Each structure stands twice: as C-alpha cells, then as structure tokens.
Amino acid sequence: MRILLVDDEVMALHILENAVKAVSSGDQIIAVTSAEDAYKVAESRKIDVAFLDVDMPKESGLSLAESLKELWPRINIIMVTSHPQYALDALQLFVSGYIVKPYTKEAVQNALMNLRNPVQKPRDGLYVQCFGNFEVFYHGEPIRFKRSQAKEIFAYLVDLYGATATNAELRAMLWGDEAEDSDKQRNYLTQLIRELRLTLEGIGCEAVFQQSRNAYGIKVSEIACDYYEALENDLQGLKNFRGEYMKQYEWAEDRVGYLSDKLESVKRM
Hints:
alpha/beta, 5-stranded parallel sheet, 11 helices, 17% strand, elongated
C-alpha cells in the first residue's frame, strides 16, 4: 500500500509520519509539505491512501482531495485538521476518514482499518483498470503514454474485448465528426499506433497488441482487467464496478448501463 502524507507544518508532518509508520509496517510512505508537491507525486504513481491537512496555504486539503480523486477515483482520503468545523465539508467529498489534531497512533490505526475503498494488492504483470478512469499498470506501477490519444486507442481496443477495429473506425473514435480519410489523419494515426506498440514493447508486453493489415486488436489472454472479470460473471469483479467506466472517454458511456444491468442480474442469482 502506498500512503501519501501532506501537511505544511514540518513538525506536525513528522509526528503524523511516525504514527503511520508505527501502525503500517511494510507500506510505502511519502511525506510532502505542499499540495503542489502532493499532486506531482500522485501524477507519477498510484496512491492508495492520502492523509491531507485541511488548512494549508495556496491550496487547501479539501481542494487537493478533489484533484487527487480525479487522478485516482478509488483513493482513500483521510482529512486531518485542528478545526473540527471542517468535518462536514470533508464528509461531502466522501472521504474515507477524518482525524482531529494532535495525531495519535490509535486514531491513525482506526482510519487505516476502516478505509472506504479496500486496497487491493498490486497485480503482477499487465493490469488494465476500466472502472473509474481508464488506467494501465505494470507490476502495480502506472504506464505513461507519450500521447493521450495512443492511450485512448488502447482503451478502445480493450473495450472491444478481442474484436478488431479498422483504421477508419479508430479515426472515427478519435476525431468524431472531424474524421476524414486524409493523408494527415492517416499518418498521425500511424504514429499513434507505433507509439502504442513501442510503449507495450518497452515493458515486454508486445504480445498484447495484435495487428493484421488494416485491423487492430487486443489479445485478451495476455492481460488482467477488471472489465473482463466482470464480463465473466465474476461476482467480485462486478462488485468493483461503482457506476463509472472509462469515464474520461465519451464513447464509453454506453457501457455503464450494460454493466449496471449485469451487476443487478448477478445479485439476483
């Protein structure tokens, strides 16, 4: 589990860090003194739990909490403050916990034992998350794509669950009404496909991406994926669906209703 601690008061941060270490042996703990540094950390790696001081200069812990939840929808936010009156604001953000300073080992332990979103052990190999934001991990670390559109192509192919997409279909997905059979768009799509292939080759997962003439697809057996687990009627896989699917992509919205119906159907069995 990776835990982020944020408090602009150095002494308070040191006390919080010691309390977390005392009750959370073996976890990775990252301590920073500003919302800006916290966001940079969260951009570069997945954060499971974040202890955020509410009252910080420049950007409050409440504002930072919203930003972190945009990056990682299932992050557990634990707000910490000397001012109990902020509790209602924190609860409206659906935070996992709320601690009033001064920090105590008991309060920290209780917060970590009652996380809103249970932390799953990082999976080995390539893991694709479709529920919430679309993200790709290799041995628990997020894969960064040079261009967001290369990542979107991968998301679209994952959504197809082994079916293939043509160049024309990918152009329509990426550019909608502005898609055209022009040299400019064909060449740019070729660059995106090449970047996607190189990204997967860079982590030794080139077998995942399949290409045959004018068609592209994903070898389903080569990846672990929450969406695929749900398709296989795995109850736990379906329970991981919380009403959001690849939420950064408009073309993925239709899948939400299908998954919601599937979850209700399995519950009735």
